[in-house]
Amino acid sequence: MVSEHKLLPSTPIQYLKGVGPNLALRFKKKNIETAWDMLFNIPMRYLDRRELSAIKNLRVGEEQSFVATIQSYHASSLNRGRRKLMEVLVQDEQDQLKLTFFQFNEKWMKQRFPVGGKVLIFGEIRLWHGIKNVVHPEMEPWDDEDLTSRIVPLYSLTEGLYQKTVRNIMTKNLHQLLELVEDDSRTVREEGAVQISLKDAFHYIHAPPVDADLELLNNSRSPYHQRIVYDEFFFLQLGLRIRRYQQAAKTSFTLNHNNSLLYEALSQVPFELTGDQQKALEEIGQDYMTGRPMNRMMQGDVGSGKTIVAFLSALSIIQEGYQVAMMAPTEILAEQHYRNLQLMGDPLGVTVRLLTGSTKAKERVLLLEELIAGKIDLLIGTHALITPDVLFKELGYVIIDEQHRFGVLQRAQLKNKSHLGIRDSAPHLLIMTATPIPRSLSMCVYGDLDISIIKEMPKGRKAIITKVFREANHDAMCQEIEKELEQGRQAYFVYPLVEESEKMDLKDATLMHKKLSTVFKKYKVGLLHGRMKGKEKDAIMQQFKNKELHVLVSTTVVEVGVDVPNSTVMVVEHAERFGLSQLHQLRGRVGRGADQSYCYLVAQYAQSEESRFRLKTMERTNDGFIIAEEDLKLRGPGEFLGTRQSGMPDFRIAHIVRDSNLLKASQKRAEEILSEDPNLSLDKNLMIRKIMHDRWGQRLELSGV
Predict the structure, then answer these.
(1) Which of 91, 455, 485, 598 has the CA that lies 20 to 30 A from 315?
(2) Hey, what CATH class is 260-454 in?
(3) Which fold has domain 465-621?
């Protein structure tokens, strides 16, 4: 056990009172590993134990707490055995009530809540066939020693962690944890966020007083929540602005005005660039003339033509004798970029090569020799580009496709390979994303980047017609698809699983490949999924591109970047299980030619209100920016951007949509402080500087702060 005066923010949680190594492993599953993590383990909601009702007095339509005794368990099957239902009968001294569970672990429940045991229950009271009912309530064993009338925090759990255990740990350690809080009142303007100390805010949230407003607590809208939200926003905004200042102070090579290679390429492009493409190309060209390294994000909806802009922008760099690296998140996308750009590069004398995890050892050795000798102009690849043995002679430009799939450190690893060049200058950086980023998220996560937006679609493209089908109408949908196949078109069928799962009643790609081969027996049906080896996947995609396959059954491996203009139908099975942005990405695989295209979303069982909203949104609009805004509201920023290592700040409590007013206030205050003291070197700002460095210095690659 660590004594009180030795506790640091980085202290492993196993040394906190009541934790130990076994519980520490369980907390690690929730990404809680240090004392600071434990303090930021904010309750997800609160139980009101100030008023416990008898079952007969529970009000239908309201969320309430009550204590009852477990009487019996009854499990049954629904939908011909495809789903299970658990009903638990509970009663108090005067009345009975049923608890209903659709997802459950029967063995664990009976051990945790045995028949005859008392349970504290919280949830929305409903009426079903005249009997009061609660669906998926919050439950915990009722301990007679814990009858205190108070507001009780509920924490997010994982297997082996229980509410009482987590609350006891917080109670034992809260005083020590609060001592870790460093605060500076100057971060908050008097007319800005709530004037509450950060220490008081954490104390209130983990141990709310008996007179707290339960509604504000449960919606994370209390002044105490807002104080922590503001704090999270403020130090990130401060870090992003300092990062931008530091990047602006770096030097990079300036290109001359000889763009003959670019003009030659433009004369060979078989189509006219859209106005947005031309504008993005001009913005990049202007960045080249500043003498500072470009840090730009190019946002463009699926099929808007970002890759051609990136390639054209690279030609001016290549003409100056520098090399270009383009990193993509999947082998399929990297290979597609390679094939397309090699066709454009060859007539221009531009050497384009590909490096992925599937590149053979002998071929890799030769390729790396050519790379360090400067014989390769553009190297396209996956994560394989950032392995230590990949060395450029003179890296001048880094292009990263689907930025949110790579971490900040991976981005830095690729950029830093330029240090091997004989000219000491930082490379230019272009990030591309087909996920339109709402402005609020761009301000918060990419505040250090300039942004170009491509909204115009290439001429001749038609809006994709999207329609939701129920499972009962599957045959009618297949008839519509057959009409497209008869005209020589092609179709995708996308499934969330590779093989059938015992845990989930979902159609899977391998099973449906067999079934669809009989449905479309006049046509060739192929199968593609992520477990296939690179060459196998490449061969299948090539067959589909060559029209040797008419229908491609796939998992979401086709989500990013696959380009087959002749494919006019995208079918997404179990569409209710996909997020809005993912559905939009999948839809973007069709509509890439001049023919009318269709996206059919097949929804299976009764959906939640949220999934119905997602599907209606897809039917209503093709605008990726509208879809992104709605998706951000539904899922929050971390889930919206995908992986946890995506570079998205790990906000424990802040929500950039809900708390946009606090985001703006924190940005304004950060700008005020830095306008007076850009390096935070004044004595009055040293505490602010220390906190910012501790939280963001390493992740934002800040130097000298």
Answers:
(1) 455
(2) alpha beta
(3) Rossmann fold (3.40.50)
